[in-house]
Amino acid sequence: MCEQLPHPPHRSRCESREKKIEPEVDKFLQELRERVQIGVVGGSDYSKIAEQLGEGNEVIDKFDYVFAENGTVQYKNGQLVAKQAIQNHLGEELLQELINFCLNYMALLKLPKKRGTFIEFRNGMLNISPIGRSCTLEERLEFSELDKKERIREKFVAALQREFAGKGLRFSRGGMISFDVFPEGWDKRYCLNILNDERFDAIHFFGNETTPGGNDYEIYDDPRTVGHSVQSPQDTVKRCQEIFFPERANES
Description:
Blueprint: E1 2-6, H1 23-32, E2 37-41, H2 46-53, H3 59-62, E3 65-68, E4 73-76, E5 79-83, H4 86-90, H5 92-107, E6 119-121, E7 126-128, H6 137-150, H7 152-163, E8 169-174, E9 178-183, H8 192-196, E10 202-207, H9 217-221, E11 226-229, H10 233-244
């Protein structure tokens, strides 16, 4: 048996709305599910994953596994099986030090635009966005281009690494406007904890942020997975067809 973990579709946010999975990709994943068990793992909370992949609770029924917030919130066969809380792990003192540092840093950061929701508190992480997650698509793209030139997020993370060295925190970029802060070991490899007990022959992972510092890197590079670096949902479909439907390669 093989566990397939396709990465969620690339995000495109406009007025707080996530781009939905394209029908042909959705159809293929359901076809793939007839051959192997499939799961999805993302850094976002369940509501955002559901917004991308379906409607409401139907998503946990469309996949054998759904791992929200890097797997700190776990669903299996439509049921919630585990949920962690970052505040219990870090403690209130360290958590507030972290939040206060981020707020102070962003207060001094001069950008063309700032909006709202600069820190999003999740079960398994803090998501930090210098521009604010409530920005429009146009503002998101503008910030992304500026970030490529001025390395805003990279410098922010470097400051956090210096300030909180030895405190058991990890930082990873994801998407276009933010980065995640979470306890050591709470990256996407966290979802492998539940899969280890399932005794699959292989676990395939597909992701696009697979270089060091990206939020897919650790699970992509983990010896327990067969990692595949992809560029888009369509690329994921193509790779899955090659691996799991080899007979189609000979079809005219």
